[in-house]
């Protein structure tokens, strides 16, 4: 099957890494199913990607809701679309020390980062297994390998995604299906604004951030190669390698300082 007959479903597709991944898939002549909360932003992205001569279907859903995540699959099936590539990109974080942060928002983040990924993966993976073909790209993070003071829940959700991706990859290895985890570091997207993280030392140092287009290309290349995971960026690879030999307590202390607000000492 040529790419012009294939569909890639991408969540979080209206901005950041998800948008850049959608741009690559459109350039490679995949038809797109774009999922995000904001219909206006989806329509704007769809108009751009259609210029590549591909079909673009938009589905506006709030993936903080498990019910809406389930309904994505139902809508896709109702449209008669076969999803050949699933990209679980949508995710958010929340900045602050856990004792002070909003538990309801954190539970929403767990529903989005973990729940939506589980629901969409299970739904579409069943179809892929039945036809013995398919690809899945899950957005993990180097946060999955590092304790994350100031972003404790986000780091924990990404550790889940990495472990989950590696596990189901092993389960479907004989079904001609690949599952790939993309592991970027801090990337210049709207993620930090949504996480209320503008005061973090890490965010204020924009020079240390990766480019979303570069991260997306790394993810796409790894997905097409059938790799199990890809750490995007040399500095991030070095940081993960260090995590394999440095005690977790030291890693946590280092991350505490990196992610602390610039005025922490003035509190």
UniProtKB/TrEMBL annotation:
Quote the SUPFAM superfamilies the UniProt record gives.
NAD(P)-binding Rossmann-fold domains
Q: InterPro entries in the record, alphabetically? A: NAD(P)-bd_dom_sf, SDR_fam
Which GO cellular component does the record give, naming just one? membrane
The GO terms this record gives for MF are:
oxidoreductase activity
Q: Which UniProt keywords apply?
A: Oxidoreductase
The record's Pfam families line, in alphabetical order, gives: adh_short
Instruction: Note whether Ligase occurs among the keywords.
Output: no
Similarity annotation: Belongs to the short-chain dehydrogenases/reductases (SDR) family.
Spell out the PANTHER family in the cross-references: DEHYDROGENASE/REDUCTASE SDR FAMILY MEMBER 7B (PTHR44196), SHORT-CHAIN DEHYDROGENASE-RELATED (PTHR44196:SF2)
Q: What is this protein called?
A: SDR family oxidoreductase
């Amino acid at each position: 099957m040529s790419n012009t007959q294939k569909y890639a479903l991408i969540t979080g597709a209206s901005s950041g890494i998800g948008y850049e991944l959608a741009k690559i898939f459109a350039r490679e002549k995949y038809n797109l199913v774009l999922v995000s909360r904001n219909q206006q932003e989806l329509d704007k992205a769809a108009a751009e990607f259609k210029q590549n001569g591909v079909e673009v279907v938009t589905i506006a859903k709030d993936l903080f809701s498990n019910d809406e995540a389930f309904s994505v699959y139902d809508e896709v099936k109702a449209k008669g679309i076969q999803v050949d590539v699933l990209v679980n990109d949508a995710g958010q974080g929340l900045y602050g020390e856990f004792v002070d942060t909003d538990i309801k928002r954190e539970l929403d983040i767990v529903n989005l980062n973990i729940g939506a990924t589980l629901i969409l993966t299970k739904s579409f993976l069943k179809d892929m297994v039945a036809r013995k073909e398919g690809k899945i790209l899950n957005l993990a993070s180097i946060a999955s390998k590092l304790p994350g003071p100031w972003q404790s829940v986000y780091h924990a959700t990404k550790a889940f995604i990495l472990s989950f991706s590696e596990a189901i990859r092993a389960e479907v290895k004989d079904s001609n299906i690949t599952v790939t985890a993309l592991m970027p570091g801090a990337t210049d997207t709207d993620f930090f604004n949504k996480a209320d993280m503008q005061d973090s030392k890490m965010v204020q140092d924009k020079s240390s951030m990766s480019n979303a287009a570069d991260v997306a290309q790394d993810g796409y290349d790894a997905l097409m190669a059938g790799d199990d995971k890809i750490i995007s960026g040399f500095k991030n690879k070095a940081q993960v390698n260090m995590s394999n030999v440095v005690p977790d307590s030291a890693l946590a202390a280092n991350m505490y300082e990196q992610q602390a607000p610039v005025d922490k000492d003035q509190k």
